[in-house]
Write a structure and sequence with these properties.
Layout (H helix, E strand, L loop, with lengths): L1 H9 L1 H4 L9 H12 L8 E3 L19 E2 L12 H4 L4 E5 L2 E11 L3 E2 L2 E2 L3 H4 L4 H7 L22 E8 L10 E10 L4 E8 L6 H11 L5 E4 L2 H15 L2 E3 L5 E4 H9 L8 H8 L13 H11 L6 H26 L12 H13 L3 H13 L8 H10 L3 H16 L7 H13 L3 H18 L6 H27 L1
Parallel strand pairs: 7-10, 10-12
Antiparallel strand pairs: 1-11, 2-4, 3-4, 4-9, 5-6, 7-8, 8-9
Helix pairs in contact: 3-7, 9-13, 13-14, 15-16, 16-17, 17-18, 18-19
Organism: Cohnella hashimotonis
Protein name: Ribonuclease H-like domain-containing protein
Pfam families: RNase_H_2
Amino acid sequence: MSSLRDRLDRLRAHSASSKATDASPGDAAAEESAEQSTGTSVRFAERMGDAVTDSSGPSAGRERGATVTGVNGALGSGLHPSLAALDVEEVAGEYGSFLRRRAVYPLEHRHGHYVLTELISCAGRLKPIAARQNRKRGTPAADSSIEPEDIEAKRLLFLDTETTGLGVGTGNLPFMIGFGYADGEAGTFTVEQLLIRHPGEERAMLAYLLGKFAGVTHLVTYNGRSFDWPVLTSRFVLNGWRPSGVEPGHLDFLHSARALWKNTLPSCKLSRIEEDRLGIVRGEDVPGSLAPELYMKYLSDGDASHLRGVYIHNERDILTLASLTVHFGGVLEGRLGAEWALPAEPEELFRTAAWLADHGGELHAERLFAALVAEGMPGGRWLLPAAARLKRLGRHGEAAELWERAASLAESRLLPSAEAHIELSMHYEHRCREPGIALDYASRALELLQRRTSLRQSDRVRAELDAIRHRMARLSRKIEAIGRLG
């Protein structure tokens, strides 16, 4: 990465533009917040010692309904024409300057299935997600005795970065930071995108971003807990800030997305989830993986048009974070099966019900579990975990029905599992007092395992086979004893 920094430094002189003469009152406030940010609940750093695109005009690709505003009301003043064409402008402050692009959407704007105004009502439902994710030092949820803060839409910051690399080490530079925030009183959702033209502008960009954290309780991201936030915190330290106080909490929807869709979608990439579950069709889009290459092209020849697709991609990602917030808030609110249709695939229906149960929505989860079993949906991977849940709840008869269905499916497969047969053997032996039926299931379990492992047997499989043979021997002795008593 040292070569990258050298290259960026050499291009600094070619990339620098005339600084804006005045900053807006909002920018001055941001600088002050960066210096003295306490916010409502957050102070984490201080200084050391259905998307429709518009293909016309210079802002091609921006979603319809957005209004772009600038620092002084005039776009691109004093900038290279290729930058001005992107609706960006220079922001100057105590630490230097950087470029900012701002798009303002009305809360009535629809992004896929959801309208942004639903953020106001759905945000408060996300508290269980935050409570599970924020179990680390320095966050409000770290101490289990502390009740997590209520979540309000106006105190969320929707965050997505574009970086020069993939790691979270010090050599990875965030060259673009995008974030969004809702203002219920103004009826707007604002997306801001900060860009640096060389490493010397990074400190000014970070100072501005730090000011935006005033009053923020949670960051809304997609893999931000593991990537975006660690990258930013390392850059804060490298640029002269040190951790101080409580960090914002996290609402990282990658984890929830995987919980619901990892077995039913080809991948849990944000673009896949947008199209298959959120009703968002991007059309032409620059993959995030190409962003570093396009940024290097811009640095090499000074042509900012290379970055047009990066801006559009980043802006849409932030809007999609808002749609995910509405989706998961609605699921926790119990809209599935009421206002919204239930998932069509039984595997996804089970995963959603299990996710709800894990996040305190047991009442809504039970409704989904009941729909799953009542409809007699075709079995799959969901049968065994659903039966295990019923067993834990003491509902053994219902669990046995699912084991029966799983056992029938297993016997028709080339590589069968014997788990359902073993569970049924234990059920009939210990709960139904039917050793003959229990022995039959144990025998069938042994046959399935032998069929599966006819060529090679690991130590684990040999242990399973020995356990089944031991069970069969015990059941045979029990049946003989019953016969003698009879």
